[in-house]
């Protein structure tokens, strides 16, 4: 029966991963199997995995191997997540233990730049579309594999044309549900920033996203009507005043690297002064 076990790799949690791209090459000699052949291989594989007391099965299906999806679903696999070019389906094998396969990431990360120049002016902008069209801090969502400092520097530049450097995290807002995607939360980091060059702070609004952008004095912000700026942003500015008055580093970033087992990891440590 092991002659028909799909090529797989084991993980540290006693689970297995099958990739349709590797199976296509190694198990089927670069020829798409018939539904009957694929079913025979899958059933033999599941029987083998159960005999070895494996826990979870992860099956990565490339877009061009979509014929696997119905076959997997018919054998108890469910969708875990999808990307542009593949989806991943999973099946929990033990009948006497609860399913402990981790969920796909369920929290998005957003950033906002509280940019202040040497005159004490604050950089604000308006979106062209969205549920809130008043004045706000420039920002947006972090990209995959992007740090918080890199994300906020990119977003501020994209939306306003101003190059500013991350200084520290002022505060953050967490929504545990009701984020941008179903059953997802959102964490939004407000970051204190300074212009890279005070002589080069002319605004160049993004034609696609930005309806308006201005350096505003605090008096100008205070005189805005309530429909033009949300209390949330005024609260952030209150916290900015307290932070600046304290003359401390606040929540700043230091790089940290460590070796954990065979993996070398690097990350940002957020330290509070």
UniProtKB/TrEMBL annotation:
Nudix hydrolase domain: residues covered: 106-238
UniProt keyword Hydrolase, yes or no: yes
GO molecular function, one term: NAD binding
Top-level lineage group: Eukaryota
InterPro entries associated with the record: Nudix_hydrolase, NUDIX_hydrolase-like_dom_sf, Nudix_hydrolase6-like, NUDIX_hydrolase_CS, NUDIX_hydrolase_dom, Pre-Nudix
Pfam families xrefs: NUDIX, Nudix_hydro
Keyword entries, A-Z: Hydrolase
Family: Belongs to the Nudix hydrolase family.
The protein's name: (pine wood nematode) hypothetical protein
Species of provenance: Bursaphelenchus xylophilus (Pinewood nematode worm)
High-level lineage: Eukaryota, Metazoa, Ecdysozoa, Nematoda, Chromadorea
């Amino acid at each position: 029966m092991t002659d028909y076990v799909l090529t797989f790799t084991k993980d540290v949690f006693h689970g297995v991963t099958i990739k349709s791209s590797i199976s296509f090459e190694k198990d089927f000699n670069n020829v798409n199997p018939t539904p009957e052949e694929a079913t025979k291989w899958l059933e033999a594989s599941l029987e083998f995995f159960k005999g070895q007391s494996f826990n979870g099965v992860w099956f990565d299906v490339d877009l061009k191997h979509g014929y696997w999806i119905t076959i997997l679903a018919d054998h108890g696999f469910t969708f875990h997540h999808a990307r542009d070019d593949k989806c991943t389906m999973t099946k929990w094998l033990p009948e006497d233990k609860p399913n402990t396969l981790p969920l796909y990431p369920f929290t998005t990360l957003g950033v906002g730049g509280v940019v202040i120049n040497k005159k004490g002016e604050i950089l604000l902008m308006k979106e062209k579309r969205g549920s809130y069209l008043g004045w706000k801090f420039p920002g947006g969502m972090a990209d995959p594999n992007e740090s918080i400092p890199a994300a906020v520097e990119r977003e501020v530049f994209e939306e306003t044309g101003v190059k500013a450097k991350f200084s520290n995290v002022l505060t953050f807002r967490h929504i545990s549900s009701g984020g941008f995607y179903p059953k997802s939360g959102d964490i939004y980091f407000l970051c204190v920033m300074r212009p890279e060059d005070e002589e080069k702070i002319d605004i160049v609004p993004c034609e696609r996203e930005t309806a308006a952008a201005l350096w505003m004095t605090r008096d100008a912000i205070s005189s805005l009507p309530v429909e033009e700026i949300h209390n949330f942003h005024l609260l952030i500015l209150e916290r900015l005043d307290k932070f600046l008055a304290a003359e401390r580093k606040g929540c700043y970033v230091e790089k940290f690297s460590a070796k954990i087992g065979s993996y070398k990891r690097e990350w940002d440590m957020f330290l509070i002064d």
